[in-house]
Amino acid sequence: MALAKIRLFLEHPMAAGQTLPLAKEQAHYLFGVMRLAAGDRLPVFNGQDGEWIAEVAEAGKRGGSLTCLEQSAPLRLPPDLWLAFAPIKKERTDFITEKATELGAARIIPVQTDFTNSARVNRDRLQAHAVEAAEQCGGTFVPEVAGMTRLGEFLDACGAQRQIMFCDETLTGETVPARQVLAEAGRGPWAVLIGPEGGFSQEERDKLHALPFAHPVSLGPRILRADTAAVAALTLWQDVLGDWNG
Amino acid sequence: MALAKIRLFLEHPMAAGQTLPLAKEQAHYLFGVMRLAAGDRLPVFNGQDGEWIAEVAEAGKRGGSLTCLEQSAPLRLPPDLWLAFAPIKKERTDFITEKATELGAARIIPVQTDFTNSARVNRDRLQAHAVEAAEQCGGTFVPEVAGMTRLGEFLDACGAQRQIMFCDETLTGETVPARQVLAEAGRGPWAVLIGPEGGFSQEERDKLHALPFAHPVSLGPRILRADTAAVAALTLWQDVLGDWNG
């Protein structure tokens, strides 16, 4: 039986023979939109038990269930990398969440800075984007999207245990390459911190520069939008310290 | 006089004392939307003569003109890097164009592959996105968006003079790091090639692997969407061979 080209995230324990009940929206998607029927198989994951092949046991309009058959991939955790960013316009914030998931961030933290445009985010919507990105990119893990966090609280949470790659758009060229900064700081827990569109305030910048575990880096001579900077910084981190090179 | 927080691309020769006529839409944007008036100053660029400070000479509802005062930045060309990609959904194609401009691609080429979803692109719309991104990122250069090009033609245009970083999503992990592939291949003209959502066909992949100037690279263990792959590949290239590190 061919495997459906759909991967589904389901918040339910997974083990051989386990029944996985489907919520109304999931049943609608699988049976109404994707036209799966009883007996069809698809990969499912819950973010904790790896990826499993499941078979449609019951297909209804308002619900249904799958049966877990066998594990098809083990749980693969991303490196201990957080992405912290000042939320921007809705679609670009959605985009950052999607990209951070694909690029293997373990936790996504919207931060409130002096110049952050929006004071709140729709956490459920962002979490749903992270789930969809995980389904699409073949990952077995979904990063948690945190609630809006003040910059000071984020820095306290990093404390001495977590290094920060801090993208300072006032540094353009004439600095140590980001690659070298990362390689010299070395492996361990990290966070990438992306400022708001208007940049960090002088006070914030002074504070960040004074923290021994925060490393300012430049992302080239052009001023990147916050969403571009997020993708570029995560890429460099994964390439130098993360799981891109085995 | 304070400088307006607007940068405007104008297709007109620029030199001290030069009058720059404004089209109706430009006049509407500057005077109707941004509320500039005669005497106000803003940075302008044409992609060839660097950035100039211009003063509003005449502000009308249907037109107007600026006077070029002095050059504020020289022309800064990006490295000789092309981005070739198989167009995907409209908004993601727009996004790739915006990001390629910010990340310093010199030319953007939509390519037609065996599995490309769309057979045509709206070149004018993509070019407008490149202009807007250049205005926003502080660049003095606007990459040209080429018309839809067959993969074979693109490869012929690269010929022996241009190396290709070819993002092969079938390579996940267990390969030489992209950074090392780029560093060993060395500087010179390059192109980044991103395949369509369905990947390259087997025939295309065989052809690419046989070309001595095409270098397959992996972008980590998760499958990246085409737009993410474009940003990640351009970032790695700029970091290793481009203009990000002085």
UniProtKB/TrEMBL annotation, chains A, B:
Q: Enumerate the Gene Ontology biological process terms.
A: rRNA base methylation
Query: In this record, what's one Pfam family?
Result: Methyltrans_RNA
- What's its EC? 2.1.1.193
Alphabetical UniProt keywords: Cytoplasm, Methyltransferase, rRNA processing, S-adenosyl-L-methionine, Transferase
Ribosomal RNA small subunit methyltransferase E methyltransferase domain location, by residue? 78-238
Alphabetized InterPro entries for the sequence: Alpha/beta_knot_MTases, PUA-like_sf, RsmE, RsmE_MTase_dom, RsmE_PUA-like, tRNA_m1G_MTases_N
User: In this protein, which residues make up the domain named Ribosomal RNA small subunit methyltransferase E PUA-like?
Assistant: 23-62
Where is this protein localized, as stated in its record? Cytoplasm
Q: Per the similarity annotation, which family is this? A: Belongs to the RNA methyltransferase RsmE family.
Descriptive protein name: Ribosomal RNA small subunit methyltransferase E
